[in-house]
Amino acid sequence: MSKTAFLIIDVQYDFLPPSGSLAVPDGEAILPVIHDLLDQSKWDWSVIVASQDYHPQNHISFASNHSPHKPFEKMTLTDARGTSYEQALWPDHCIQDTRGTQLEAKLVEDLKTWGDKVKLARKGTHEKLEAYSAFEGYITSFQTPDEPTFEQTSADPGKTVLPKQSPLTIYLREKGIEKVVIVGLATDFCVLQTALSAISASFDTLVLGPGIRGISPEDTHKAMQRIESLGGTVVDKGKEN
Ligand code: VGL
Ligand code: ZN
């Protein structure tokens, strides 16, 4: 059996109905699927990584920082690397130290049962860099049994602008991981980009349809096609929208 990492992308309150500021339609439907996949009597993951979108208030992706532009408009921006790109502008979301950035409570409970197999990947921490992929995050570890507090264990690429190599790739290779199983939100953004990173880092990449939901149905469909055309696998398609 090849060693497998379970990657849980951005299951945070701001992406979840009913109150998330960027709630993904039907996003709550993935929760029971994920909770089941964290049942230790059924599954044996070598590594579990939960990613968190983790923005400062002045993040480049927030429409509020580009007045008079509005959320869901697109605009051309230049990021900290000097790259011009088309940014989808978002409502303020997943701001550090707010409830919106926290992982869903039962997910935290489930993760605690796995002890030091669990890491967090936090991304989007640099004010002038958009970061959808968990592979662009820095790694923190799940620290105490009672409190969901975390200790940073790798350099924050957001602080240094350009990671030489993805901290998550380094970590998964260190652990001998060959395969990743991906669930989370949103299919058309962070799940897509995480899957593409995993494929280009040569991990055998499996995305679980019932465990993902997207923001736009059309982009969600395209995202799954793109993952498959690049060599990933999406199982149980059709349950994701
Ligand atoms: C995401 C939009 C903005 C995601 C993050 O988690 O898919 N989407 N930031
Ligand atoms: Zn974001």
UniProtKB/TrEMBL annotation:
<dbReference type="GO" id="GO:0008936">
    <property type="term" value="F:nicotinamidase activity"/>
</dbReference>
<comment type="similarity">
    <text>Belongs to the isochorismatase family.</text>
</comment>
<comment type="pathway">
    <text>Cofactor biosynthesis; nicotinate biosynthesis; nicotinate from nicotinamide: step 1/1.</text>
</comment>
<keyword id="KW-0378">Hydrolase</keyword>
<dbReference type="GO" id="GO:0046872">
    <property type="term" value="F:metal ion binding"/>
</dbReference>
<protein>
    <recommendedName>
        <fullName>nicotinamidase</fullName>
        <ecNumber>3.5.1.19</ecNumber>
    </recommendedName>
</protein>
<dbReference type="InterPro" id="IPR000868">
    <property type="entry name" value="Isochorismatase-like_dom"/>
</dbReference>
<feature type="domain" description="Isochorismatase-like">
    <location>
        <begin position="4"/>
        <end position="236"/>
    </location>
</feature>
<keyword id="KW-0479">Metal-binding</keyword>
<keyword id="KW-0662">Pyridine nucleotide biosynthesis</keyword>
<dbReference type="Pfam" id="PF00857">
    <property type="entry name" value="Isochorismatase"/>
</dbReference>
<dbReference type="GO" id="GO:0019363">
    <property type="term" value="P:pyridine nucleotide biosynthetic process"/>
</dbReference>
<dbReference type="InterPro" id="IPR036380">
    <property type="entry name" value="Isochorismatase-like_sf"/>
</dbReference>
<dbReference type="InterPro" id="IPR052347">
    <property type="entry name" value="Isochorismatase_Nicotinamidase"/>
</dbReference>
